[in-house]
Design brief:
By secondary structure, this protein is mainly alpha-helical. The chain has helices at residues 6-20, 24-28, 32-48, 54-73. The protein is elongated, with a radius of gyration of 14 Å.
Length: 84
């Protein structure tokens, strides 16, 4: 994983965790509400659509974890700073 920033590595780790257990990546990186949301929503999609759209929710949970955690830890010069 040479050439990746710390934020990208953490994002990949969070995405991988949420791919295994939806919401786990968010929970580990302290985004509890979003993590519990995916933890509840994904099984609902699995069972309510007879296993057809469960994969969509699963991948969305992983992508959500990746982008949220990467954005949380990104400190590069391209990031816009919030003015206080």
């Amino acid at each position: 994983m040479a050439g990746l920033t710390s934020a990208q590595k953490r994002g990949l780790a969070a995405g991988a965790m949420s791919l295994v257990v939806p919401g786990l990546g968010q929970i580990v990186y302290r985004q509890f509400v979003v993590g519990v949301f995916w933890l509840i929503l994904t099984p609902v999609f699995w069972y309510s659509t007879k296993f057809l759209l469960g994969w969509v929710a699963h991948v969305m949970a992983a992508a959500s974890a990746y982008w949220a955690v990467q954005r949380q830890y990104d400190t590069g010069p391209h990031r816009k700073r919030k003015h206080r």
